[in-house]
Amino acid sequence: MTNRDFVITSLQSWDIPIGSNAIDIAWEISKDNRVLYVNSPRDMMGWFRNPAILHRDNRNIKERIPREMIRRITANLTVIDLPFLAWPVNGLPDGRVFDFFNKLNNQSIFRYLKGMVQKMNMKNIVHLIDNDIYRSFHAKEILRPRISVYYRRDNLQPMVYWQRHAPRLEPILIAKSDLVICNAARLRDYALPYNKNSFDVGQGVDLNAYDPRQNLPLPSTLASIRPPRIGYIGDINSLRLDADLICHLASERPEYSFVIIGKEDETFASHNLHALPNIHFPGSIPKDRVPAFIKGMHVCINPQRVNDITIGNYPRKVDEYLAMGKPVVATMTDAMGMFHEHTYLCTTREDHLHAIDKALLEADEKKAADRILFARTHGWTNCVQRIYDRISTHSPQ
Predict the structure, then answer these.
(1) Neighbouring residues of 33: CB distance < 8 A, sequence distance ≥ 6
(2) What are the Cα distances from residue 353, in Å, to 91, 145, 334, 358?
(3) Neighbour-count burial of 13, counting CB atoms closer than 10 A to its CB (0-12 exposed, 13-18 middle, 19+ buried)
(4) How many Å apart are CA 110 and CA 136, to the nearest integer?
């Protein structure tokens, strides 16, 4: 697909410090098409609570209202920050009051974007909604794209922030979208009863960044940690990651160093696993440093909790681990089933221990090569081509 115009509205801002499917998809699409990537507006509550705002002269508050910022990333890729604040709607009771203020937000966003699309001379646009259930809910009616595509890459409904409104709104958004694409079969299966044009298009990995042939020196942070290093890199979120399991593994294998990299939530930050001398928390690292840290691990892990959030979500980090050729030990979920030939999948604590032991003894270059080859089938080019195929089938002209 070439010379089409795409607008992407996402939950994740362009400058997010962790990996983002929406951003990677935007990069891939922009190779042959024009893309306008839209950062969600900040809401009023978060903006006014900002200490930098509170400690300034209130007489100048109008000068501090967000301003339009247009960034030309490449000739085909533009990022825009919206010049207004949104109503903080999530705390409202579900129903008419929420719907009223949420529609106001949608009208502000998409009337503005409609003007921007006209100014950029974008035609017959494809609008890709990246899990943005609330602020893109009325986009189809206001923006009037040629085709509206809802990208369901996470099950947000069980998460505390989304529990009040998403269970009602997401099925409606799915039903009125022209096309629903998902990155895992379980997420597609949820959407199918609401929209027959729902498809699993898989996941991608940045094959240029995650290439073991690169000359990536061992980060100094890891050099100071004794081997063998068992590593996790990603969001350290207690809804997804099993702190008790990690604590058990480190307690049972004091001779191994467990390196847990990322931003911790409150549950992890206060967990007693911080008392164990062989668990290390280096904190967050920039996205472009992740491949070097993966290369410095001897075994990579994904010790998930099994719940409604994780059971069907595609584990992006596992592709990244495999693309670097690393042995991977992970909790078994529905989405992990596709990795069974290339990872050690576990259901119990003892399974994880034995798998890590076995993975550390592995010295099979063919297995490493097979992991890399498998991950390379998940490049973003393949994933986006499947998206193009679905769009073309639905809207051949």
Answers:
(1) 1, 2, 3, 4, 5, 6, 76
(2) 43, 51, 21, 9
(3) middle
(4) 8
Residues whose CB is less than 8 angstroms from the CB of residue 40 and which lie 6 or more positions away in sequence, other chains included: 9, 10, 11, 13, 82, 86, 132, 135
CATH number at residue 152: 3.40.50.11010
Backbone angles phi, psi at 37, to 5 degrees: -100, 125
298 and 390 housed in the same domain: no
Closest CA to 134 of 49, 24, 9, 18: 9
Phi, psi for residue 248 in degrees, rounded to 5: -65, -45
**CA dist., res. 224 & res. 326, Å (int):** 20
Q: Report pLDDT for 207.
A: 86
CA angle 200, 201, 202 (to 5 degrees): 95
User: What residues make up the domain containing 47?
Assistant: 5-204+379-394
Domain presence at residue 214 = no
The model's pTM: 0.87
Give the CA diameter of the chain: 67
Place of tokens 């900002």: 50
149 in Cβ contact with 1 (< 8 Å): no
Q: How far apart are CA 296 and CA 283, in angstroms?
A: 16
Distance between CA atoms of residues 332 and 345, nearest Å? 5
Low-confidence ranges of the chain (pLDDT < 50): 51-64
Q: DSSP assignment of 38-83, as one string?
A: EEPPPBHHHHHH-HHHHTS-GGGGGGGS---EEEE-SSSEEEEE-S
DSSP, collapsed to helix, strand or coil, labels residue 216 as coil
CATH number of the CATH domain containing 351: 3.40.50.2000
DSSP 184: S
Tens of pLDDT, residue by residue over 147-173, are 999 999 999 999 999 999 999 999 999
